[in-house]
Structure prediction request, 264 residues.
Amino acid sequence: MEFPMRLHTRGPVEGPCNLCGEFARLTEDHIPPKGVPRVGQARLVELDDFVRGQKASSSSRLFKNGVQYRSICATCNNARLGARYDPELIAFTRQLDEQLPKFRYLPMTLTLRPDRLVRSVLGHLLAHTVDMPEEGEVFVDLKAYFMDEAARLPAGYQLWCWPYPFNDQLVIQAMGRMTGLGREFLTMSLIKFYPVGFILLKGEWTASRPALTRLDHLLTGDLDAQATLTLPRSGLAPRGFPESPDDDGAVMLNTQMARGAFRI
Prediction:
């Protein structure tokens, strides 16, 4: 008899860091970071269980203090993500959490330092996978961008966000999404958790989509540059966007790079 294996979230004690690539002792990254709203006990599940709303299975894994992946070195975890970039993501999500109850009646306007926010988002997206591929255009591009504080997001990439008022989380790397019976094929990665979702898109969105807000046009290469972001109040993305395809669409992905979690 074969027994399902628990979800693999811990890389070797020592190995190459998912962010800087240096061989070092690996540490556990909280995804999302502990300071965002509602982080606590969470049960990690396979993507098909997540889509079906199946909160527990023989392969699921319970975390008492948020989902963690042992995949990055202490310098990237503490000095880069923890000290420089995560505070911006935490501040952004707390603003969203505060304004969500009034979102139906009032516009939602947020202040942010986009270059710090985006590096936090992409850093946790990259940290999500144990034994990350060393090749692949998207992974190479994002790691180079994360490590260079003055860099601009490489040409051809777009980053979008939207309010996500649901008590679960999902991370998918390098998913192919087809819409309109093949009229549009997009490569994207996503991370969503209460109260926000982010999509990193490779290519150009031409088909219809929910009311997402684009972030990458705010990037300047200056970590301390500030910006204001206004989120639309109508046409918001449903809970299953974008991992659940439309009737005339499909998604293609590596299930080892797609994990959902239900917060308990």
